[in-house]
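Researcher: Can you fold this with zinc ion in place?
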Amino acid sequence: MMYADLALINGNIITMDSKKLRAQAIAIKNQRIIKVGTNNQISQLINDSTKIIQLEGRTVIPGLIDTHIHVAAFGRHLDWLDLTDCKSIKDMQTILKNKISQTIPNKWILGRGWNEKNFQKNQFPNRYDLDTIAPNNPVVLYNQSGNLCLVNTEALCLMNINSQKVKLLKENTIKRDLITGDPTGILEGKALDLIWDSIPEPDQKDLLELTHCACLKILKAGITSIHWMVLSYLEFSIIKKLKEKGIPLRIYAIIPFEIWKKEIKQTPSHGLKNNTFKIGGIEIAIDGYLANKTAALFKPYNDGSYSTGNLFQSSQSLYASVSDIIQSGFQPVLHAMGDKAVELALEAIEKLMKKTEHQNTRIRLEQAALINKNLIDRTKNKKIIISVQPCVINSEFKTWNAIDNLGSNRARWLFPLRTLINKKILLIGGSDCPMEPLNPFQGIQKIVDRKFFPEESITLTEAIAMYTINAAYSTNEEKYKGSIEEGKIADLTILSIDPTVIPSNNIKNVEVETTIVGGEIIYNKRV
Ligand SMILES: [Zn+2]
């Protein structure tokens, strides 16, 4: 008789397995799920050495998979000061003072969240308020909306902003004292770019520490696997170091084509053998982003500029690169945001699919944000996976004003998830953290309780599938994870409440109580 190492009993198990939708209990041995069934069935697999989790009716779902996250950027954000609760300049100074006491001189200090409307007499802070506390560290503090920044004198010096340069820059981007003409320390608009040109990239040691913290936060959010959108070679080299540190998070690295070609393609190793780290996708940018109007469109943006965005690839270059990726044994990840870019991607894919050896390749379209009926018909039945970041959908409509910028006829076809699912196109879900919140339930709520073109809302089960079984399929791992089934790896997330029985505008408040990776309890809120 094979007894379980770990058993979860008396629960509400949402399996995401279409053959057996719900169960009461799970038995785990050697990292794998050995039985999913009733309490009675599982109790027969329990002996004295079995560890038991009494679920007391709580809900269990497969470990969540975040299919699009920028871990290094997220780690760097965790180090930022949170100024949202400041009620005065003095409060800001207190938080800064505390940080200074733990920071070596010359190191940059970043923060965000202040709002002068919360301050006494709406007093606007200036660089001297920071200089008294931080004379030796450059300090950059974004306001709540992120469109404006307070910096100290040290930061201004490093940015090379002096009274000479101020005159050269537009008056509204670097604020000046009305009497002396000196910069006040408030920067806006284009001047914010100067900051990012000056802040040095973190070194390997810092980056390792920051990404380690980020991974722990990710696990705490109930996420057991991530698709890590790598931005630099250094970031890529960190992943193996994190694994040496024993981070259990399963990592599928997605690497920009140029970095892969230059620095990684020749390396024989594609990751680790134990399924916890793999170089999987190679990303090609076909166009830019809607938010800065660089996504490539058939017809101009609605701003009177006649601009149709930017295409970074020709048909030939794209086809050559995609073939190279597939022949090297990796997955093509094609960033295509505008309809014109999506068409270019489809053209390359159609050409590839004519070769029988490529017909089973799972190709991933990143975003495919603006699409139309013709493109949707060309997408289906081609093993194309569309990677969606649900919180981005909301931001495109709400913050970017997609309806104004595209016109409502086109905006109607911006992320039409219901239509895509009806056409049997496979969707996967990611956070795009730190640009958007990490919490997967926040993303799920955005597409179930969709505010813009609500006819494109999807069901909760469909949304959970995007973060579980569909995400597993997208990396050829659907036999291994993504649902709670016998034989699969025991990656599980225990929730405070059943998301299927609460109002859809409350989904974001679902809390993760426990995260289990490969049968090990990695995070437990209750202890
Ligand atoms: Zn992203």
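Model: Folded with zinc ion in place. The first strand starts at residue 6 and ends at 9.
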